[in-house]
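In the previous lecture we treated proteins in isolation. Real proteins rarely work alone, and many bind small molecules. This record shows how such a complex is specified: first the sequence, then the SMILES for manganese (II) ion.
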Amino acid sequence: MAVGTVPWCLVSALDVWRTLPAKQQPSWPDLEELQSAYNQLAALPPLVTAPEVRSLTERLAMVARGEAFLLQGGDCAETFAANTANKIRDKVKTLLQMAVVLTYGASTPVVKVARIAGQYSKPRSADIESSTGLPSYRGDAVNDIAATAAARRPDPMRMVASYHQSAITLNLVRAFATGGFADLSKVHEWNKAFVRDSAAGRRYEVMATNIERALAFMAACGIDLGSAALTGVELFTSHEGLLLEYERALTRVEDATGNPYDLSAHMIWIGERTRDLGGAHVDLLSRVGNPIGCKIGPKASPDEVLELAERLNPQHVPGRLTLITRMGAGKIRDALPPIIEKVNAAGPPVVWSCDPMHGNTRDVSGIKTRHFDDVLDEVFGFFEVHKALGTHPGGLHIELTGENVTECLGGAELIGEEDLGGRYETACDPRLNTGQALELAFLVAEMLQQARGERAAAMQELPTA
Ligand SMILES: O=C[C@H](O)[C@H](O)COP(=O)(O)O
Ligand SMILES: C=C(OP(=O)(O)O)C(=O)O
Ligand SMILES: [Mn+2]
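The predicted 3D structure, ligand included, written as tokens:
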């Protein structure tokens, strides 16, 4: 593994990353322990399969063509402690509820990708936490969040533990997706309860009633709402491909095709802090067959993004690459247009997705938070830019939870600074709570409906031949 000691000609293409600068890797204190964890991971079965991964690429190709919408969401950082049946259920439930609302708004399929079953490592701004003087918490796959020196020591066996936690989660997620939990009529009943019982929901009575009518119409037409197609969903998994040893150990060459896939999740994304063109992350992930995401922050130049897009999708495969822009509400309207123009003019087809969370983090008396209005404003900006350029606003990437936490400010429940202490439970970044996430889905659905109405009106105005 220590590639510096191996002659260059013996390095597998999948290990070239070992010769390149790798940012945000833990300082593993014991390389023998690391080797042992790697060997264990490499011998374990994959978490997902190559055909599933290819199905997601096909679904994302539909998004790239403007025929579908992508919804990606979940925790900033999953933790072993919060990996309980109820919390997993409620996260999946929130995603499914959002997806139904967005499907109605967009009148197209919604591709559902959870940040789940592997989101256990975090890039950090600082190696040392200023409040404690301890090494920063880097996710449960690396160290423990408890504020002691022993807890913060990076332990490679935690990567093996996070594999097992991911397997447990995935087992439940698969059961929820196909075992009746995701039944369209039931998800709609949950949305009706949200609309009826919450201040946030009451604003969306009209849309909920319209969805109800659409379901009644389908039933009247003889469509069986109890059929497998409507009681199950396709739910894919994703996480940031940050820990290179973990991702490499779960990269497997498919017998049937001879192609490598990172089978730790269906979709893997590269973070804003590790997307260097000459870096290890871009190299490893450029070589696997999964759909790849890449975060794009406000400092990225159009040329740099085009180069990244070519590097990550040289064959121009639709669905292979999702560019997840996370500019900040105040910057998106200026920063995004030149990037879209550059990539669309010469580059590969991409899915354009909006992460309205990471450019809008702020500090309130030492607590990391985000304001719902900023999140919404960035989403509005994203839609405005795409409308002006005639491109498809393909998706949303959200940090959310299925619980009633108080981590982000605002929303219809008007969470204020004084409320942040109530249920602030995230291990890293502040997440939208269920109500805020559903509210966002209804607002985006309204936007999508309006955009459809405008397109239809424009078509009617076209002169006939
Ligand atoms: O999730 C994203 C990053 O890991 C996170 O925003 C970094 O947070 P920090 O600035 O507190 O290190
Ligand atoms: C680290 C993250 O985001 P970014 O790379 O965009 O900062 C994240 O999605 O949690
Ligand atoms: Mn985050």
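Summary for your notes: Residues 76, 123, 240, 271-273, 295, 326, 358, 429 surround phosphoenolpyruvate (ligand 2) (CB under 6 Å). Residues 28-182+232-267+357-447 form a domain with the TIM Barrel fold (CATH 3.20.20.70).
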